Amino acid sequence: MKPIKVIVAGPRGKMGSAALRMIQQSDNLQLVGCIDRKFDGQIVKDLDGLPDFEAKIYEDPEVCLNEVEADVLIDLTTPEFGYKHTKLALENGVRPVVGTTGFTKEQLNELTEMAENKRIGAVIAPNFAIGAVLMMQFSKWAAKHFPDVEIIERHHDQKLDAPSGTAVKTAELIQEEREAKHQGHPDEKETMKGARGADSEGLKIHSVRLPGLVAHQEVMFGGSGETLTIKHDSINRDSFMTGVKLSVERVMEMDILAYGLENLLD
Ligand SMILES: NC(=O)C1=CN([C@@H]2O[C@H](COP(=O)(O)OP(=O)(O)OC[C@H]3O[C@@H](n4cnc5c(N)ncnc54)[C@H](OP(=O)(O)O)[C@@H]3O)[C@@H](O)[C@H]2O)C=CC1
Ligand SMILES: O=C(O)C1=N[C@H](C(=O)O)C[C@H](O)C1
Known about the structure:
It is found in: Cytoplasm. By secondary structure, the chain is of the alpha/beta class. 30% of the residues lie in helices and 25% in strands. The chain has 2 domains: 4-124 and 238-264, NAD(P)-binding Rossmann-like Domain (Rossmann fold, 3-Layer(aba) Sandwich), CATH 3.40.50; 130-235, Dihydrodipicolinate Reductase, domain 2 (2-Layer Sandwich), CATH 3.30.360.10. Strands 3-2-1-4-5-6-12 form a 7-stranded parallel sheet, sandwiched between helices. Helix 3 runs parallel beside helix 4 and helix 5 (130-143) runs parallel beside helix 6 (165-175).
């Protein structure tokens, strides 16, 4: 079987470098190019700390997608550039697998429509960790019984977006089961702005950013005389790589955009 030809955008990043190591360990994946704004024209293996790949690095994503024959683009960059890369990939018939978080609802809708019109597979997964997908699904289930819920997500302090993509997706899944409800006392007042967190249809989301953390989320439900907490911890970035690899493999057979790894699991 021919290997799946992959471009990685953001190869020097925490996730991008983990993705390169995952590709190196996979017999069925081949790195054919990288998109990186700082090392145009260089070869991956010449960069400190990256695996021994001969693939060329491109600053300009359009040039990369024109010059390199690829099946899949893995994007692990920033919301602004991730959105541009995903759009360009779809325009060029390359299937995007996107871990980058922080896209707006409008951007997600536009990309979904583009993939559908072009009949090209795409995956946008706010969290590639299998445990995190289960945590979100369990939370959706629990919300049928407990409409009072708050999300506490904790991440490293280099993270750009808040709330996390996982928290946003969790709230969306919970809202498929939960009626919109204002939580807490009806006369509740914040004496310090932000004390009650972000509000998503009355559901509160609290974002913690500290050095030492990786990626963690607790979903707390409250009922009469009881609480239920569903918790997931990624203790390193290998936790995301099973989902990235699975997405790259599955996207080859898809012709629509899947938002969330749960759509690819049995
Ligand atoms: N879906 C999931 O399971 C996960 C998703 N994420 C998400 O993935 C994204 C990356 O996270 P992480 O690896 O921790 O972040 P990092 O900051 O470590 O890496 C981001 C990389 O993107 C590069 N970059 C920035 N702008 C551009 C550009 N214009 N063109 C090409 N590359 C660019 C940065 O380069 P430079 O050094 O020049 O700034 C950097 O190397 C985030 O959105 C994060 O939320 C993270 C973990 C899991
Ligand atoms: O930036 C991160 O680190 C992570 N981002 C994703 C998110 O925003 O949910 C996934 C995971 O939480 C790690």
